[in-house]
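Discussion board: Methods & Data

I've been asked by a reviewer to show the raw model output for two of the constructs in my manuscript, not just the figures. I'm not sure how much to include, so I'm pasting the format here to get opinions. Each protein appears as its amino acid sequence followed by a line of discrete structure tokens. Is this the kind of thing reviewers expect to see in a supplement, or should I convert it first? Here is construct A:
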Amino acid sequence: MKDELTELLKPEAFRLLVEHELAAARRYERTDTLLVIDVTGLDAVRDAFGRDGGDVTLRGITRLLRRTARDSDILGRLGDAEFAVFALNCAGNALASRIADAVERTEDAITHLTIRQLSVELKIAITEVRRSETFEELAKRAAPSTLYAGFTEGFSS
């Protein structure tokens, strides 16, 4: 149940694991956070460098997320240019700050494409879980309105 390109969880597998953790969060009264990450500028990279250039960029973003997330965090690829991190027992601002710092420091494919007058931007929506919240409710609050349809669409397939 992993995405072939990034080896991150596909939407349905991500949803199932998060639903399990939502139940645990209620039981143990812990604070969990969902980060939805939208990559903008990917189409320009693909126009300039082809699909392979886009794939290199997506794999670079995946490496960045893996380096900044903790082992206990759940990572998924929700759509073509959308990712998510479910951070267990963590305030979302701390993880978002680590991701932002990693973006500034990274020396991988993302930076190399930026040098050629192209760049991608990561937009991060941070949503702390409410105690009695279902996955559907969390997804609706977490995804910016422009992303919501694509964000939830992948979970029904």
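Construct B, same format:
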Amino acid sequence: MSEAVETIHMAADEETIRIRIPMKLKKRAGRKEIVLPKVVTGKVPAQEALVRAVARGFHWQSLLESGEVKSIGALATRFHVDHSYVVRTLRLASLAPDIVEAIVRGEEPDGLTTRRLMKPWPARWDEQAIALSGA
């Protein structure tokens, strides 16, 4: 989402008051949501499900790297989830840093969902943005 300087415009005549608030429609979790610019709200809301999924991927990766959990199977058992779900979630720890930052800031590509993130995408960071922007 661009951060162009957008302002609220107010106009009035004898019978009408018009207030123009710039906003964008963004597809999130299968529905359209009104997103007001930072100038109006002070922040852009992040999709909690995306942020949680990425955080879970990084957390699980750190558990494996530290040796606290010995294998993917042990992770699945510990968190009562399917082995394939653990594998898909761990892949999120290899997302390009700029994509992770965009997700945390709420500036992910329109239509990007956890379902889309769990599907295959390129390992190369420079190819990920292209693949995921077409969500």
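Answer (T.O., handling editor elsewhere):
This is acceptable in a supplement if you add a one-line summary per construct. For B, something like: The beta strands are 9-12, 17-20, 24-28, 31-35.
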